[in-house]
Design brief:
Distance between the termini: 54 Å
Helix content: 55-70%
Number of strands: 0
Largest sheet: none
Low-confidence stretches: 1-10
Strand content: under 5%
Number of helices: 10
Shape: elongated
Order of helices and strands: HHHHHHHHHH
């Protein structure tokens, strides 16, 4: 009896191709300068396919922010810093992992939602809200480790784990802006190093060893 032929691997549909194209083109050119025609050309789909899946470029922008959250969420969920036993070590490990992602050209390591919200916070409220949700949700993944580190070191903090988690994102987004201004990753890496030093000072003695 002959063996059944293996099924061919599923090809990304037009919607996914457009979302992946948005991640690359918008990070390179910005949301405003990115046209529907360019997205279609990059994705290799027709304009009719675009409007079959998205009513407008703004709707695509919202979907791209959500797609970005899914793609990056999976990346960070599988990152090695989660293996550290000490919660403070996991926080530092997260930032060191962010440094390892500063590879390639500026569009390759900068943040899609940070790029889009700078342009559309006033003109496209739906995109602004999607970008805020993406950044805030990512920050929230750090809160448990920050709270655990506060408790482990017996800190009486006037600030919350949530506020510090958001501050890490403020530094990272600012680092990406500086990288765009300078045309390279070195300044972004320096900004992350400064944030690590700040956290070690904030959490006090014993917060320098980040070995597992």
């Amino acid at each position: 009896m002959s063996k059944p032929m293996p099924k061919p691997a599923a090809r990304p549909d037009a919607r996914l191709k457009l979302l992946d194209a948005a991640l690359s083109v918008i990070r390179a050119k910005g949301y405003t300068a990115t046209s529907v025609d360019e997205l279609c050309a990059t994705a290799g789909v027709t304009k009719g396919a675009f409007f079959h899946h998205f009513k407008s470029k703004e709707e695509l922008g919202v979907a791209a922010a959500n797609h970005w959250s899914q793609v990056t969420g999976a990346l960070f969920a599988a990152a090695p810093y989660h293996a550290h036993a000490d919660p403070f070590a996991r926080i530092i490990g997260y930032l060191e992992f962010r440094k390892t992602l500063l590879r390639g050209g500026v569009p390759e390591f900068t943040c899609l939602v940070g790029t889009m919200v700078q342009e559309s916070y006033e003109t496209a409220p739906a995109i602004r809200e999607a970008c805020n949700a993406s950044i805030s949700a990512h920050a929230a993944t750090l809160e448990a480790d920050i709270e655990a580190a506060i408790q482990a070191r017996g800190l009486s903090a006037e600030w919350s784990a949530a506020s510090l988690a958001l501050h890490t994102q403020a530094v990272l987004q600012g680092a990406f802006i500086l990288a765009k201004a300078r045309g390279g990753a070195e300044i972004a890496a320096d900004s992350i190093d400064h944030l690590i030093r700040y956290l070690r000072l904030l959490f006090g003695p014993g917060a320098t060893d980040h070995q597992p």
